[in-house]
Amino acid sequence: MSSTQNVILMEIEPRLISLGGATVHRLIPYAKKRMVGPFIFFDYFPATDFAAGEGMNVRPHPHIGLSTLSYLLEGKVLHHDSLGNKQLLTPGDVNWMTAGIGISHSERTPPELHNIPHRLHLLQFWVALPLEHEEGPPHFTHHPQESIPRFQVNGVDISLIAGSAFGKTSPVEVFSTLFFMDVRMTKGQVFEFDPENQELAFFILQGRLTVGDKEISGDDFVVLAHDSVLKVVASEETHLVVLGGEPLPEPRHIYWNYVSSSKEKIEKAKQAWRDGSFPQVPGETDIIPLPEDLRG
Q1: Are residues 76 and 56 in contact, defined by beta-carbon separation less than 8 angstroms?
Q2: Structural domains in the chain, sorted by start
Q3: Which of 139, 163, 246, 271 is deepest in the core (most CB within 10 A)?
């Protein structure tokens, strides 16, 4: 049982990154906070309206040593990976892709939206894998909206996207102790969660919260101090995500789309992508080059 309440360790402002036709808000990794539990990367695609002929176009790129979690709020995204999986992501769905020893994938606006105006609103995370799974076989699982646990706690609507919380467990297959919740509150509602010695952070997508004697609005990633209980009050209708977990015992290195406990494994994966021996997405040849090769 955690002993303190709402001790804020830091508030992280997003960095704006241009990525495949959209501007995303990158929250972690951050210089002073590389990870929250096993979460090592968090990109937020705010609700963005695209004209006909525009949209997301993330070309094939590689991953090792992590699982990716894509949670869609609005729009559609087409996932295509080197295992041959081709999956349409729709609102409320979760894509969970485990890279292990190596996988590549693309993420694009599906053909049916190419010629019409559309909107995209998406959250994407990387979750570092424990040592025993870092070089495991890659795999991909799609979880439709109806498979995600949805329940109320003191009237607050909660969707348990991944991990365990409030005595419930998401069907998303995770490899370490973590939680990721979508929380929706009406004005005056109180949300309280004890992470029980896990790290915890939250991000407001819409609305405002009172945290102790401080009011916080959207676009800051708020990380609580270890051993702190979260208790927030909605100042208005508010939509937030709450995430965290147990930190991995070993440090992780991150280079581009690679995460590993070993710099040597990253170097090996870099060379494999450069020479074409890394697993490729079937039928897609317009890959994203290794960043250092772009500078050559």
Answers
A1: no
A2: 4-245 (2.60.120.10)
A3: 163
Share of the chain residues as helix, strand and coil, in percent rounded to the nearest 5: 10, 55, 40
User: 132 by DSSP, 3-state: which?
Assistant: helix
Radius of gyration of the CA atoms of the chain, in A: 19
In this predicted model, what pLDDT tens digit does every residue of 30-75 receive, in sequence order?
989 999 999 999 999 999 999 999 999 999 999 999 999 999 999 9
Alpha helices in the chain (DSSP H): 263-275, 291-294
> How many CA atoms lie less than 13 Å away from 29 in the CB half-sphere?
16
pLDDT in tens, 200-228: 999 999 999 999 889 998 888 999 998 89
pTM (2 d.p.): 0.95
Instruction: For residue 267, give Cα distances in angstroms to 164, 215, 232, 260, 262.
Output: 34, 45, 44, 10, 9
Written as one letter, the residue type at 172 is V
Torsion of CA 168, 174, 179, 183, to 10 degrees: -80
